[in-house]
Amino acid sequence: MQKSILITGGAGFIGSHVVKLFVSKYPKYKVVNLDSLTYAGNLENLKEVEKADNYVFEKVDLLEESGLKAVFEKHEITDVIHLAAESHVDRSISDPLAFVKTNVIGTVNLLNVARGYWKDYDAHLFYHVSTDEVYGSLDNGGYFEETTAYDPQSPYSASKASSDHFVRAYANTYGLRTVISNCSNNYGPNQFPEKLIPLCVHNIKNNKPLPIYGKGENVRDWLYVIDHAHAIDKIFHEGKAGETYNIGGWNEWQNINIVKLLCEIMDRKLGREKGTSSKLITFVKDRAGHDMRYAIDASKLEKELGWKPSLQFEEGIEKTVDWYLENEAWLEHVTSGDYQKYYIEHYQA
Ligand code: NAD
Ligand code: TYD
Hints:
The protein is α/β, with parallel strands linked by helices.
């Protein structure tokens, strides 16, 4: 095998698409998926690759240093693509410490193990996957650039910002070869239905209210998850060590408009009369400290590495809705058990 890549969080939403891309595109790489399988991790996301010769799954928590060491030794890890994290802003508001544990301490544990295991740092890469939320909120126009000062506003973004700083500190202090990318909101198949788009698809199907925080005027820049996976592939292979790359879709939408679009699409696909699903729209109490707008300037990645999003949003959202409608068993599985508890606590408290 040319490389033995540790992909953390590979059973989650974005991680599973990255794992599937690397396993199929690089048969000479060994892909080691390390994931502790929290509520957001689901091995069903990896059915297409689970029997591949170059794929291995290791159920290990980022907080277990000895487990991480054992994985590095057993698989002779050459590179890391680190995605494992607690990823949902609302959960970070109710339980910030869980985010400090996984996102900050877990990342530092992983950095320590990589630093201790690798001998010649120039021969290895530690790629840290992060979010545009570290830059804060764009209330007054403009775009996040790689040089924008960090200004995280939620416990989630504060924990991700902290992990980014640790990655840069390990490059500066110990000479580890690192790269960081900060991406905008992803959408697509396999996203846990606590996030806006899959939550609304699920609720429209089940005739449940569509909770819109505040006035629904907050803006997010949406990128199809497989485009993100391709950007990670590009940056992993062609990015310059020590650099940061912003990844985005040039695709800004107010939340309310996304939800209205989903209602129209679902009415058509479910054979409902036009306007039926939009009656489910329900304005609810705003999220605490709700960031107003995120928008990424992705021109560095376009100019330097030639990456561009491949899918128009209108096409991506149709594909996404089709996937959820065709994968009812997946939705039922992930929304059973704890999901009900979360939903009731969050929306009916
Ligand atoms: P996700 O919540 O769907 O998946 C996270 C995965 O990490 C799960 O499989 C979970 O089991 C695993 N995990 C959590 N804690 C762990 C621990 N302590 N040890 C080992 N595994 C653990 O998240 P996602 O949306 O796929 O996001 C992946 C990464 O991309 C995160 O680092 C996130 O910050 C970043 N990101 C996400 C988005 C987005 O829109 N979802 C945008 C930009 C960046
Ligand atoms: P989300 O998918 O949680 O991603 P993030 O908070 O990381 O951007 O939320 C996207 C936007 O949708 C955000 O502005 C919050 C809003 N939102 C709602 O209005 N209702 C909901 O039920 C959820 C989950 C999010």
